[in-house]
From TrEMBL:
UniProt domain Sigma-54 factor interaction: residue ranges: 145-374
Xref: InterPro entries: AAA+_ATPase, AAA_lid_NorR, CheY-like_superfamily, Homeodomain-like_sf, HTH_Fis, P-loop_NTPase, Sig_transdc_resp-reg_receiver, Sigma_54_int
Gene3D superfamilies xref list: 1.10.8.60, 3.40.50.2300, Homeodomain-like, P-loop containing nucleotide triphosphate hydrolases
Pfam families documented for this protein: AAA_lid_14, HTH_8, Response_reg, Sigma54_activat
BP GO annotations: phosphorelay signal transduction system; regulation of DNA-templated transcription
GO function term, MF aspect, one: ATP binding
4-aspartylphosphate sites (modified residues): D55
Domain of life, per lineage: Bacteria
Record keywords, A-Z: ATP-binding, DNA-binding, Nucleotide-binding, Phosphoprotein, Transcription, Transcription regulation, Two-component regulatory system
Transcription regulation found in the keyword field: yes
Domain Response regulatory: 6-120
Organism for this UniProt entry: Nitrospira defluvii
UniProt xrefs under SMART domains: AAA, REC
Protein name: Sigma-54 dependent response regulator
């Protein structure tokens, strides 16, 4: 039998419900119980189930109406209905409405595990097919990461190296550089690819909600806790949990998280049962955590726990050679989405896009391309179609800022790339501007792997 499945048992008879819950828990499943259809819907809202076993004759909305609402909202959940021997016709009707099978009461102890196993096998197969289709559609999501620059090649290499292990990864970089995309790439190339990928935006949560979101809560844990809710840690069991903006956690929340990170054990709020999870952690931040540690805003022990393998995402201004690739990808995607004729970017407009500093990084570029697809009627995007701040970047076209401490090889490579862009890849003009021979330039282009 498939083990570790999430099962919800719905029956208004307490003794029957309790017996079935106990029997299924002994098989290694995570089982919840509900006494009415309304209560069961609340449980499913808190956390979907792989299999629901429900009585058909219940007070309130009744079994058939509960089945219809369940299948309308969670069509992938398998349902086995339970009914009295004289109500077989109702059970058959339930199967027409989407139930997988039925059991007659009193429950046959020999048939019961067989029906459960078959229902879970069907759910597992459907889930596997859905995940396989998703992975084929995105080619494991790696193709969603666009760029052929040296900084991005380093990112790709790191993703390949860490994906197959369960090592904790810390993604750093400015807002909009694609940290969640990299986290998804790591997940989809790992052995956990068939498991869930769950995200938690730490920056969007007030301190008093962090525990309930991360660990969940049991029914009755506090006023308003009408049903048990699974936390993100539990939902990410056998998968990956991305903690985005982890640098925004309060010191108290950092202590709570560190404890679970070390033990992989926790209790839901209001609960007594210790829950152990098998979850991979990826953290992401746009803050300098090392500086935050020195300032006392971030715990040093948590920092070292998270910073096992750091992967830095470069800002777009440091990978300007990737901008044409990104522009092309976004223009094609949005032209398809909005059913517009494909657009191209003129050389002058592309030159301005490459010169602009992009404080919002890829997210800002993506939003601009979406706007241009919708608002520009011409097939060719010209400089005048671009926002004023990007048009103004032409004033700095022949200026290049160099950060103190940048390796000379990197500076030389960047100067050659910028010069080639300035003369639209005309090598003889570039060599003349750089004051070197054409042969020397060609050697440098090959040495640095510059595409020109």
């Amino acid at each position: 039998m498939t083990q570790g499945a999430h099962i919800l048992v719905v029956d208004d008879e307490v003794n029957i419900r309790g017996a079935l819950v106990t029997l299924l828990e002994k098989k290694g499943h995570r089982v919840r119980g509900a006494g009415t259809g309304e209560e069961a819907l609340e449980e499913l809202e808190a956390a979907p189930a792989d299999l629901v076993m429900t009585d058909l004759k219940m007070p309130g909305i009744g079994g058939m109406e509960f089945l219809r609402r369940l299948k309308a909202k969670w069509p992938e959940t398998e349902v086995v209905v339970m009914t009295a021997y004289g109500s077989i016709d109702t059970a058959v009707e339930a199967m027409r409405c989407g139930a997988y099978d039925y059991l007659t009461k009193p429950i046959d102890r020999e048939r019961f595990p067989i029906v459960v196993e078959k229902a879970l096998d069907r759910h597992a197969l459907a889930t596997e097919n859905k995940q396989l289709k998703s992975r084929l559609d995105t080619r494991t999501r790696f193709d969603q990461m666009v760029g052929d620059s040296e900084p991005m090649r380093r990112v790709y290499n790191m993703v390949e190296m860490v994906a197959e292990s369960d090592v904790t990864v810390l993604l750093t970089g400015e807002s909009g550089t694609g940290k969640e995309l990299v986290a998804r790439a790591i997940h989809h190339r790992s052995a956990r690819a068939n498991g869930p990928f769950i995200t938690l935006n730490c920056g969007a949560l007030p301190e008093n909600l962090f525990e309930s979101e991360l660990f969940g809560y049991d029914k009755g844990a506090f006023t308003g806790a009408m049903a048990t809710k699974l936390g993100r840690f539990e939902l990410a069991h056998e998968g990956t949990l991305l903690l985005d903006e982890v640098g925004e956690l309060s010191l108290k929340s950092q202590v709570d998280f560190l404890r679970v990170l070390e033990t992989k054990e926790f209790r839901r709020l209001g609960g007594t049962k210790v829950i152990k999870v098998d979850t991979r952690i990826i953290a992401a931040t746009n803050r300098n955590l090392e500086a935050a540690v020195k300032q006392g805003d971030f715990r040093e022990d948590l920092y070292y726990r998270l910073n096992v393998v750091p992967i830095h995402l470069p800002p777009l201004r440091e990978r300007a050679e990737d901008i044409p690739l990104l522009v092309n990808r976004f223009l094609i995607a949005f032209s398809t989405q909005y059913r517009r004729e494909p657009k191209e970017v003129s050389r002058d407009a592309m030159r301005l896009l490459r010169l602009y500093a992009w404080p919002g990084n890829i997210r800002q570029l993506r939003n601009l391309m979406e706007r241009l697809v919708v608002t520009v009627k011409d097939a060719m995007i010209q400089p005048e179609h671009l926002p004023e701040e990007i048009q103004a970047s032409k004033e700095d076209a022949r200026t290049m800022l160099v950060t103190l401490g940048t390796p000379l090889e990197q500076i030389e490579r960047d100067v050659i790339q910028r010069t080639l862009a300035e003369v639209t890849n005309h090598r003889e003009k570039a060599a003349k501007l750089l004051g070197i021979s054409l042969r020397a330039l060609q050697y440098k282009i090959k040495e640095y792997g510059i595409r020109a």
